[in-house]
Task: structure prediction
Amino acid sequence: MEAHPRLLKALEVRLPDDHCKIMPFIVKHDNTVLYGVRDAVSGRGEGERMAGTPSCQDQAYQPPTGPVSVQPVPETPAASVAGGPAQTHTAYEFVREYMAFLLPRDLNVLWTIGAMLVAVLALMLLSGLTLALTYTPDASLAFTSVETLERRVPFGWLLRSMHMTGATFFMAALYLHVFRGLCYGSYRAPRQGLWGVGTVLLMMVMITAFAGYVLPWGQMSYWGADVAGKAVGAIPLVGNMLERVFLGGDAPGTATLHRMFVLHFTLSFAIVGMVILHVAVLHARGSTSPSGPVGQNRARMLPFHPYFTVKDGLGVVVLAILFTLVMCFWSGLVTEAENYRPANPLHTPADIEPEWYFLPFYGMLQAVPSKFFGLLVSGGAVAILLFVPWLDRGASATFVAGRWGGLRWLPRVALAVLVCSFVLAGLAGRHHVQGVWLLVGRLATLGYYLYFLGFLPFYSRLARKEARS
Amino acid sequence: MSFPVRSLAAGRWGGLRRLPPVALGVLVCSFVPAGQGAFMASAQAAPPPGAPAHAPAQNWSFNGPLGHFDLGAVQRGYAVFAGVCASCHSLTQVHFSDLGDMGLTPEQVTALAASWQVAAGRDAEGHLKHRKATPDDALPRPYADPDAARAANRGAVPPDLSRITQVYPGGPDRVYALLTGYTPVKAPASAAGTDAERHPAPTPPEAGFANPYAIGHRTAMPPPLRDHAVLYADGTQPTAQQEARDVTTFLAWISNPHADDKRRLGVGVGLYLCFLACLLVILKRRIWSHVSK
Result:
């Protein structure tokens, strides 16, 4: 791929510098595409000119039609649908601008999780819409309609297992995404809004996941709804009313299913809207970089396409491989056997536990003796993420650059404690916080909150003091 | 139960039966796949005295990520189900058309359905009417409701078998062990015997049948299988053990009828995605080749 220096020189002579500037949309079938990259290219170091890439060479070897050769513009589907020339221009500009979005070149694999989340969300939406064609939200019919889906509807088994596996993968990727944000301080100015939108998105996804888990109306669905209703009922003053609104009666039933179905269905589209907002804010604020502000230098950035489309594409395909392995060969990882028993209000299962992604919060709920405070603590564990930008007021430079080397290990240790606390709270939740797990659950809850309420303010104050001196 | 079957069973499980029940319980708990059992064992230090024995692992054709159902065994298992189990157990979620996937042509499915009678409303005098089933019908239930089932089975409701190998702790291994593991009535050294000795209250014979794989080592289900209980069309010898194997295979298949499709799809999609990933790795390296870190 490295072009010979002499060849490069020849190319530069042949191609005026504004060649790339007026280069239209996708230039060539080749792996490099040259629209809108002039800004990115101009800031780059020696020997990295786009002129050295094959597509520019192809351009150069065409019979000269003038000083500047302009390729015919391929019709994009968006443009052809848009109609009038002005609109075409707008849609075209829009795609062009998004494809030329500059990203730090040193983004690591954790930054491809966003693309994976978008891919899984699309899969969830499509499979969910087709599942909704068969599903009946009625207490006496829901379980049978899901069984019909799995047994008789053509490829219903595939749609349902994709949807179930997708839920697990979506939550796992989302937790990793949040972890990346905490790890690299993606919430710091000027990206508080981005972080806020993301946290609201996390909450919406959790509600959607819970509502979706109730729908099959198996034993765990029913008793999960029951436990959640009782948890809501523990709120003082309005609790009883809220519980009745949530369940639509005294116990989970058809009314609950209608509520959960509508919630699940509408929230999923609200999530799509929020994701669009999230991406729009990201484009307005720019991406963080693992190397901090150094990486956000425009000179060290690359356009989204083709550099990050191929990287994200690879990430999505690797995720798809994992997804296929889990879905087809180890589906026991994402299914709950007890939920294949139809809901039975007269028979309480031996242990009611939520899906794995709620276990940490379930553990925190149980670790606190009071029901209401348990609810506050476990709900607060998510809500506290909203306030992270104001809890950690340190400059973004201090965290990653580690200018004061002595304490560079501290954030890593704190983050490790946070992750361990989260996992341990989940394990405690799984073990119903009995015996030794009660202690573990309480310590984990404490560790989780200490990171946000203790470490972040302390460390950012320390960093600011350091920066002033 | 014929002699060779019993001696085989004694050879396989005799050792296990001699283990003290506590050790057996720990064994069971540590093997429950969901992992809840393992915790229960560690938290309470000893399982409840009636914990079912650990079912020995069987070499099923559908085991493992690349297994597949032996459709011959599934069909034989259907014969056992229809001839033996269906008199008490239901398959409420299954329609006759679903049985086509065990390797039957549509004509065979229609003929198979026609051998069953389903309720078809009431006639002018209010008597129940019956008709031959069609492929679109669900398999009929043996009892109209749980109360009727309880009345007919001395207070026990035979569980629905639609998802039995998925929801039954221990899965197909335990179903098979339960079907073949009945303690002979006069066997003083059996696990059920020791259990009864530790709890001096004499268990009346009405309480069920001794079976180390049942909860509390008693089950309400009488030993269902005997040699030549059904006639196999393919000439396989219908020994009780063979029948248990076949019916377990059938129940595992009916619990997860598209598992084979899924695994086949997984192999194809996995290979395709690996190939695609290789191409993308090459493409990514090519595109990023001139970027210095």
The beta strands of chain A are 102-104, 301-303. Residues 220 and 336 of chain A are 8 Å apart (CA to CA). Chain A has three domains: 5-99, 104-352, 356-469.
